[in-house]
Write a structure and sequence with these properties.
The chain is α+β, with helices and mostly antiparallel strands and about 160 residues long. The protein is built from 1 helix and 7 strands. The chain folds into 2 domains: about 45 residues, no CATH class; about 90 residues, Pantoate--beta-alanine Ligase, Chain: A,domain 2, CATH 3.30.1300.
Length: about 160
């Protein structure tokens, strides 16, 4: 590098030159930018960037997937609840006069309504009976997602 007493260490884009004189170390150092010989990133820099990106996504991706699963589950339950409520309201009218099991399909869900008379503890002295109306909503043959239940007075038949 010119003078035989100069030594240089090369780091990335900066060459650091330590100047030593024949008398001893003078404490002088010069930092010179030498970017004219570099064209882009080194392979090591690219690999480190990929590794950091992979670490970032491995930390963030499970949380994002879990959040999406939770959102889909919430939407499924919300739709099932709306169907259960409307089915319960329809069968509350029927429960005044009928008992039994009713089923059907709506919006990709299967529903089943149960209307049953509750047995009184003593002999009934009234012409009214207490009936339970229970609605279960599921996806095809799966266990129920939502179950709603209510009670209503109806005529004895």
């Amino acid at each position: 590098m010119g003078h035989p007493a100069e030594r240089s260490l090369r780091f990335k884009s900066v060459t650091i030159i330590f100047v030593c004189s024949w008398i001893g170390y003078q404490g002088k150092s010069h930092v010179i930018s030498d970017r004219r010989h570099e064209h882009g990133f080194s392979l090591l820099e690219v690999l480190v960037a990929f590794a950091l990106t992979a670490l970032f996504f491995s930390a963030i991706l499970p949380a994002a997937v879990s959040s999406l699963d939770s959102l889909v589950d919430t939407q499924l339950r919300s739709s099932a609840l709306a169907i259960a409520r409307s089915t319960l309201e329809r069968h509350a009218v029927i429960a005044r006069f009928e008992e039994g099991v009713f089923d059907g399909h709506q919006g990709g869900f299967a529903w089943r309504a149960f209307i049953s008379r509750l047995k009184p503890a003593a002999e009934p002295s009234s012409l009214l009976a207490l009936r339970q109306i229970r609605v279960e909503v599921s996806t095809d043959d799966a266990p129920p997602i939502i179950t709603l239940s209510t009670y209503q007075l109806g005529e004895i038949r």
